[in-house]
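Lab notebook: predicted structure, single chain.

Context: the supervisor wants predicted structures on file for every construct in the current expression panel, including those that have not yet been purified. This is the next one on the list. No modifications to the sequence; it matches the entry in the shared construct table.
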Amino acid sequence: MEPKRTVFGATPIIFLLALPLICVGIDFFWGNNIPFDRWMRYFSGIVEQSSVGEKIINQTAEDQEFMRFHLSRLVRGEDRKNLESTGFACDRTYHSVVCVLNQPVKIDTRNMTIYTQSAPNRIQETVIRPHARQEGLPPGITPVHVLQIGNSTPPVCEFEHHDPAVIFSSGAIGNVFHEMNEIIIPLFITAKHFESRVVLILEDYNPKLMSQYGKVLSSLTRHQVLNPAINGSVHCFPGSVVGLRYHDNLALNSSEIPGGYSMTSFKDFLRKAYSLKFSHVSQIPKPTLMLLSRTNSRRFLNEDEMIQLIKELGFELIVVKRLKTVSNLDKFVKMINSCSVLVGAHGAGLTNEIFLPTGAVMIQVELLGTEWASNTYYGDTARAMGVHYLRYKIEPEESSLAKIYSRDDEVFTDQGSLFRKGGYRAARKVYLDMQNVRLNLVRFRQTLVEAFSLVTDSFES
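Prediction complete. Output recorded below exactly as produced.
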């Protein structure tokens, strides 16, 4: 019996040794190379699990090195040098501001103030509004104050945390394009490379955002998302990130910091977060088309005829009335993932193309005055994810605007004029809010046939 007791006694040690945290990558950025010996130190390290509110003691050297390395990946050039020398740096681009602290911080979540040490007799304040897109900030973004306090005494810790904090704002929600573009994708870019070893602080904690995207956030952290309204106190962290990295419209650029991620990576991440069944369109038993049916502007005026045509071509059809179905995102994304083709007029609903399996087809009905936005927001995104993009550009006579304006009006002849004269709001009023469409079914049939061919060829191959 003695040998058996020895084996059982060793089991906890064997279990702990079987939990290595691996971080492998390449730093692609000019002037930002990280020594190879630092990479090698990430191949092991035992991590002590924790929940928000639990006190953590004795952070290991491996944990500290892991944290410092991954924090440094969020800045570049002189900012990275400043981070290494002072413990604080902000990377500022046209769209976003991301501030990084790789030293112990105390965060008072009651007023979103971060206290950190600095050189003696140096007191400096930096104010950041932690939203991914700094231009046109939504109203009500709570500013985060970073106080470098020199020799001053910071407040006393009430809770200590083992992992660094990532502070961000949800901003305005209720539009799937802005939710994905300005919250979810930037959060993925900023936090994914930490491999769940971060504490997310949602400064304007929104239950609706959590109900819609809770699975996504839970896939980025091993902790509960901290709600300042409930957890209002002084929290201590070994480091912190304030703000989210933004690359481009519905885009991830693998050459941008922190580097290595693409829209394909993001799509795979979502598939795992929502437990989506289909990774490739060939896995779907029968070609299935989802039609996004709008009820206000940008409506299909001959939708019944479109539905008949779609069925005649052999598609299984799902018609989605926006408000009725999209309210349950967990159910809706599984529905989209089961589709071979997504069809819709230009608008936020097409953002859901990110849940389509690889090899699927997205058909965008491109309305008058929407050429740039149609291609930039949805066409580029589809192609980057391995989704076929088919563009159905309407003719003037297919637009309801033909009944309001004469054919020689600049609304038709110079579609950029409204943008130049009155900006986005003026153009939106006409091209988005006033426009509906009656498709030429002979032309549209050709697009549907092409889509059917693409998905059935994938199935056969």
